[in-house]
Amino acid sequence: MEGKVKRITTRTLAEMKARQEPIVMLTAYDYTFARLLDEAGIEVLLVGDSASNVIAGHETTLPITLEEMIYHGKAVVRGAQRAMVVVDMPFGSYQGDSKAALHAAIRIMKETGAHAVKLEGGSAVLESVQRIVSAGIPVMGHLGLTPQAIYQFGGYRVRAKDPSEAQKLREDAQQLAEAGVFALVLEKIPASLAKEVSESLSIPTIGIGAGPHCDGQVLVLHDMLGLNKAFSPRFLRRYADLATIVSEACKRYINDVKDRSFPSPGESYD
Ligand code: KIV
What we know:
- The chain is an alpha/beta fold.
- It has helices at 10-18, 31-40, 51-54, 66-79, 98-112, 126-134, 150-153, 163-179, 191-200, 221-224, 242-258; strands spanning 23-27, 44-47, 84-88, 116-118, 139-144, 183-187, 205-208, 216-219.
- β3 (84-88), α5 and β4 form a beta-alpha-beta unit.
- The longest helix has 17 residues, at 163-179.
């Protein structure tokens, strides 16, 4: 087994929380980026249903299908040697019958080779979480601004600012932890609430727009690489301006083809 890289597991993440080492998660949807992110040292690759937005161009995450998530999951798994790969369960695959939820989770695990699934919600999906965990499948939870409920929320505002929603989130977090989720994404909630929840749980929390006190952070790859200039929420830090780089490269290519400077003799065969 010489040269084999040690895989990040649920246990690794628990140990990282215990020694207060921040966990770094990014979304990934294809083989090429998965390989780059894995080589750069990202610990968890989330095959997010945000693929529905950034890959397929839908307005929300609701339309993406189980088949499409499996397709993206397979590609990411092929590119990840060290990172743990978590695949989002798409809208409609786990909110109803918990047996159907288990069936969908089993398909994701069998067909993609991923290491865990993620699903959104608290008490309403607890039976599904329990059934999937009982089958030996690691489940990551997701509370706060859960994009699959966007039409119920009526917008992308910060969640759990009012005391009753904050209390519901605390209770959901506790119930999910008791049901056996190995980590919990907290999206767009006040930093003070995320701190409190993170300190109250023994499992790691991964924040997005949830302040600095979570046990880890996640961003959507296309947003942090600056591929989508139209999307600029307060929590987003852009680490590159790939939109400009791609656009300038394409313009140079167009010019070179139009003025026949590409391909040159050196780029042609005798
Ligand atoms: O689908 C996704 O990208 C996510 C992250 C925002 C956590 O669920």
